[in-house]
Amino acid sequence: MSTFKAPKGTYDLLPPDSAKYLAVREAIAAPLRNSGYGYIETPGFENVELFARGVGESTDIVTKEMYVFETKGGDRLALRPETTAPVLRAVLEANLHKAGLPVKVWYSGSQYRYERPQKGRYRHFSQVGAEAIGAEDPALDAELIILADQSYRALGLQNFRILLNSLGDQECRPVYRAALQDFLRGLDLDEETLRRAEINPLRVLDDKRPDVQKQLTDAPLLRDYLCDACKAYHEEVRELITAAGVVFEDDPKLVRGLDYYTRTTFEFVHDGLGSQSAVGGGGRYDGLSEMIGGPALPSVGWALGVDRTVLALEAEGIELDIPSTTSVFAVPLGEEARRILFAKVTELRKNGVAADFSYGGKGLKAAMKGANRSGARYALILGERDLAEGVVQLKDMESGEQTAIGVNEIVAELESRLG
Ligand code: HAM
User: Fold this and answer.
1) Is residue 127 in contact with ligand 1, taking CB distance under 6 Å?
2) Is 257 a pocket residue for ligand 1 (Cβ < 6 Å)?
3) CATH number of 18-172+226-315
């Protein structure tokens, strides 16, 4: 061990487990690529104000969880705690929204939140996300929910649920907000919660403490305050995803930890994960563009947590079918054999055969251990006697069967065997 450890709340992805993370990212990305979403990548840090304005001044993310720093040049930056605001910033900056709407993009990458670490909650984690920017169309909300469902199904997950709600718009939410505030003022709540009720009353609905939850049983629900336009919009989203065979639950108390949401909001929760059960979440954010100085661009998106999705797979005992990456492992015995086999390995790789090599001048026994560990289907062993005869031993690692083939036949023989 070195003097250093991974910082608190972080962990390293190491082979062979890291292959699972790649497979999860790929499984989430595949349906998006297949549905008109283009890949976008933004920096790991942004002007801190982007998040303050976008995610919301009073959210936990902005008040407590951001990694904020000042550069030598005097810029105040934050490691991104989420990527929706950055994506919208990038789209506006590049004027992508002027070339046709909606702009549909997906991303994959690290997020940073200074949270209290526990299982499923880390300070560095990764998301795959999708944003559809600049169209108000319930079919777009439905598309995103259907695609997330599809990627989880493709991974074999079953014990997840989709919680769906509508948070209304700038017309009906203020009316509801006032009604909820009235209700909350009449409750027996501590100072901090009362303060929160004044600044961000919807967040109080998300309070996990049983004594608070008990008092909230009769809280007014946004559902009963939705204006006609929001009601019709939500009904249409529900119908479209139902028609697609996606099962969901209406959760009138679902609120999200970010302030930019309007209308459709949803969360993917997994029942095998304990308290950190949200594996993904998202919704509509019709006002975010204006909040960060852009034109009106009604949009919708989600982000799925890669770390928690991997935990969900483990909770369900799902082993992903990850094929061994190495097909052929070459074992040279001696100097000359090393030069010849190394050239063959290079040639195999050029021909698209995944090949690895025993480095470090190991003896046969240690080298074969490496061959086993690599998961390769075939080993190529070149000893002194083989060398003299111009052959190499081709060993089938599954059957144990070994045959001598000409050194010049290696590439053709392996190509045909690996088909
Ligand atoms: P979020 O709900 O904050 O939404 O995060 C989405 C997912 O990221 C969560 O469901 C969870 O799986 C994962 N996640 C969040 N925090 C942590 C953590 N500390 N450790 C491990 N995993 C975590 C957003 O970030 C929005 N930007 C989603 C969105 C996109 N809305 C519209 N477009």
Assistant:
1) yes
2) yes
3) 3.30.930.10
pLDDT tens digits along 85-143: 999 999 999 999 999 999 999 999 999 999 999 999 999 999 999 999 999 999 999 99
Residue 58 has a pLDDT of 86
Say yes or no: do domains 18-172+226-315 and 328-418 share a fold: no
Domain 328-418 has CATH 3.40.50.800: yes
CB atoms within 10 A of CB 38: 11
Q: How confident is the model at residue 332 (pLDDT cuts 50, 70, 90)?
A: very high
Closest C-alpha residue for ligand 1 atom 18: 121
The Cα–Cα gap between 181 and 171 comes to: 17
**103 membership: H or E segment, kind and range:** strand 103-112
> From the CA of 304, how far away is ligand 1's center (Å)?
6
| Cβ atoms of residues 411 and 350 within 8 Å | no
Residue with the two structure tokens 């797979």: 313
Domain ranges within the chain, ordered by starting residue = 18-172+226-315, 328-418
Both tokens of residue 367?
């080298």
Q: How far is CA 106 from CA 58, 124, 307, 389, in A?
A: 27, 20, 18, 56
CA of 83 to the centre of ligand 1 (A): 9
d(CA 7, ligand 1 centre) in Å:
20
- Looking at residue 223, the DSSP 8-state letter turns out to be G
